[in-house]
């Protein structure tokens, strides 16, 4: 009985919290004065962080159902516009078709702390979309607004170095998502003169890096990650800098998922480095291939890959058979270091050929998310590197393979356009089954 009473009391408390939030949302949308609206919005922002999951569910239900456009009104105005075809009719239709929740988010965003609150709200929303697809209407609005609010024209790129605030350096360590930073000594090495780190910041979130990229300044295009992140290595002198290699890019804000920031950051950093260091002639990446192992171990039908050129199917099947023989019938052995010590050049060529098929043909051009990011950004698939990352993570994800993408700043726009038409820019060094 006591548990039932507690459950009822908890449910009633949650219902009151949702009703209060809904009432304040209505007040904010109805407020005409700017100062009054900011006061209401500030109260809403403060209470948002106190909502539990059930209360957030109730708030999202209100946002999706009650703040969507009135279908009857939209239909009436659409018919009026179809008949009149004039600017007033189009304006009226546009206003009625815009969900009221967009204006709610705008008013929250204008309040101190509002941008961060909207991002937190979207983080909570993204976790629910699979179970509650009806909330996709809210997601569409938030993505639309955040894409505008976080336009690169509003962002500030700053270099992160050893003199940056300790709080910022701690966030770089925490958010590094590609090659984990092993403490302060490791970070110090990654911020030496032959290593650079740049991040994007938003004026409303001045101390919160949104995304950052790490760069190695080296004499030639790198083929392996270990020399780039060796915290005991000796920094190179500036007269040896010829290549800027982007070896890690990490998103720090889950609430900005789907908002394109990394492509602008890489191009902006490349342009700045080119001005600062005229000797730099090559801009490239050393990138993981995170889906390769999963794809090959799923035993894909290589003959059925779309766009496969005549004769390549037999070559791909022969490459897989060779590797299977090297692994005593178990391709999963490629995720361990032992078999790689036994592989010869032909084995590594077979692995690289299968990797090129994955990057170019599975399931569509650039089926790999990292490849898709760089190729859509205008980079060129330049070189595959067996034994590029022999760490446990590198072996598990891609059998140790890494890839270089080349950023030719004079050709990135043309390569981007070709990629959007289904064509992957690649060098002759990449064995191609296409």
What does this structure look like?
The protein is α+β, with helices and mostly antiparallel strands and 434 residues long. Helices cover 52% and strands 10% of the residues. It has helices at residues 2-30, 34-48, 53-65, 71-84, 87-97, 100-109, 114-126, 136-149, 166-175, 183-190, 226-229, 262-276, 292-297, 312-326, 337-342, 345-361, 369-376, 392-398, 412-420; strands at residues 156-159, 195-201, 211-218, 243-251, 282-285, 380-385, 402-406. The strands form 2 sheets. It has a 5-stranded mixed sheet with strand order 1-2-3-4-5, covered by helices on one side. Strands 6-7 form a two-stranded antiparallel ribbon. Helix 1 (2-30) packs across helix 3 (53-65), helix 6 packs across helix 7 and helix 6 (100-109) crosses helix 8 (136-149). The mean pLDDT is 92.
Topology diagram in text:
Layout: H1 2-30, H2 34-48, H3 53-65, H4 71-84, H5 87-97, H6 100-109, H7 114-126, H8 136-149, E1 156-159, H9 166-175, H10 183-190, E2 195-201, E3 211-218, H11 226-229, E4 243-251, H12 262-276, E5 282-285, H13 292-297, H14 312-326, H15 337-342, H16 345-361, H17 369-376, E6 380-385, H18 392-398, E7 402-406, H19 412-420
Parallel strand pairs: 4-5
Antiparallel strand pairs: 1-2, 2-3, 3-4, 6-7
Compact description:
This protein has 434 residues and is of the alpha+beta class. It is 52% helix and 10% strand. A five-stranded mixed β-sheet has the order 1-2-3-4-5, with helices on one face. Strands 6-7 form a two-stranded antiparallel sheet.
């Amino acid at each position: 009985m006591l548990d039932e009473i507690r459950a009822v009391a908890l449910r009633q408390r949650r219902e009151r919290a949702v009703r209060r939030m809904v009432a304040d949302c209505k007040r904010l949308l109805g407020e005409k004065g700017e100062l009054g609206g900011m006061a209401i919005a500030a109260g809403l922002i403060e209470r948002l962080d106190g909502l539990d999951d059930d209360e957030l569910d109730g708030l999202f239900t209100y946002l999706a159902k009650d703040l969507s456009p009135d279908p009857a009104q939209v239909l009436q105005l659409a018919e009026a516009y179809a008949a009149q075809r004039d600017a007033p009719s189009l304006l009226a239709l546009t206003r009625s078709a815009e969900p009221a929740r967009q204006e709610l988010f705008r008013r929250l965003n204008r309040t101190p702390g509002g941008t961060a609150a909207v991002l937190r709200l979207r983080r909570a929303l993204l976790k629910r979309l699979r179970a509650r697809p009806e909330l996709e209407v809210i997601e569409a609005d938030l993505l639309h607004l955040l894409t505008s609010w976080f336009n690169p024209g509003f962002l500030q790129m700053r270099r992160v170095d050893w003199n940056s605030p300790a709080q910022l350096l701690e966030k770089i360590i925490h958010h590094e998502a590609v090659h984990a930073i092993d403490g302060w000594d490791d970070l110090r090495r990654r911020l030496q003169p032959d290593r650079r780190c740049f991040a994007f910041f938003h004026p409303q979130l001045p101390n919160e890096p949104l995304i950052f990229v790490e760069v190695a300044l080296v004499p030639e295009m790198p083929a392996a990650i270990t020399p780039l992140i060796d915290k005991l290595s000796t920094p190179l002198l500036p007269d040896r800098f010829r290549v800027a290699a982007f070896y890690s890019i990490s998103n720090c804000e889950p609430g900005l998922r789907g908002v394109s920031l990394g492509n602008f950051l890489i191009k902006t950093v490349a342009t700045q480095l080119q001005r600062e260091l005229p000797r730099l002639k090559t801009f490239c990446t050393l990138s993981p291939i995170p889906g390769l192992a999963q794809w090959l171990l799923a035993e894909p039908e290589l003959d059925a890959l779309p766009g496969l050129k005549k004769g390549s199917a037999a070559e791909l099947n022969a490459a897989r058979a060779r590797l299977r023989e090297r692994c005593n019938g178990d391709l999963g052995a490629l995720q361990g270091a032992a078999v790689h010590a036994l592989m010869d050049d032909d084995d590594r060529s077979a692995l690289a050929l299968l990797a090129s098929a994955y990057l170019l043909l599975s399931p569509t051009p650039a089926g790999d998310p990292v490849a898709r990011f760089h190729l859509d950004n205008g980079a060129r698939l330049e070189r595959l590197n067996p034994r590029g990352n022999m760490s446990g993570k590198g072996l598990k994800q891609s059998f140790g393979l890494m890839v270089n993408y080349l950023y030719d700043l004079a050709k990135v726009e043309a390569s981007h356009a070709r990629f959007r038409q289904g064509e992957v820019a690649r060098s002759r060094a990449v064995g191609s089954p296409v």
